[in-house]
Amino acid sequence: MAHGKIMCVQAAAKVDFRMSWLGMASLGLIAIAMPAFAHHGAAAFDPNKEITLRGTVTDFAFSNPHVQVFFEAIGDHGEKEAWQGELTAPNKLIRAGWNKHTLKPGDPITITGFQAWRGERVLWIRKMIGPRGQPLPLGED
């Protein structure tokens, strides 16, 4: 009978170990996935840190999940700074009249947006003035 109890205790310990390992693995996966969920949409940007920059387009990526505008602006100390701006999905911008040729390298632009929480040179674009001085609709309002 004592041998049977030892076997039950050992089996229970294996189940407890497997459950704790499974729990830890699940927590690890959740921790890894959280930045992806946090990034979605505007969550990675500080709505209290809105800035406006004038610059020149260096690249324009009209692709999913977010359209990207890469541009160069002059910093506070007169130096050139590389920035990245994120817009909404291409399908929303298409409905607002955009296409892959709306912006091209060399175009002058003025962008207003929320800067990334950690201070990187990345903006969630809220307003944009295009190369001919016209406001560009962002298709989100």
Description:
With 141 residues, the protein is an alpha+beta fold. It folds into 2 domains: 1-39; 45-129, OB fold (Dihydrolipoamide Acetyltransferase, E2P) (Beta Barrel). The chain has 2 helices and 5 strands; from the N terminus they run αβββαββ. Strands 1-2-3-5-4 form a 5-stranded mixed barrel. The termini are far apart. The model is unreliable at 29-39 (pLDDT under 50).
* Shape field: extended
State the total count of DSSP E strands: 5
**Strand numbers in spatial order across the main sheet:** 1-2-3-5-4
Number of helices: 2
Q: For the record, what CATH class of the largest domain applies?
A: Mainly Beta
In percent, how helical is the residue content? 25-40%
Integer average pLDDT = 82
CATH H-level superfamily of the largest domain? Nucleic acid-binding proteins
Number of domains: 2
Stretches with pLDDT under 50, minimum 5 residues: 29-39
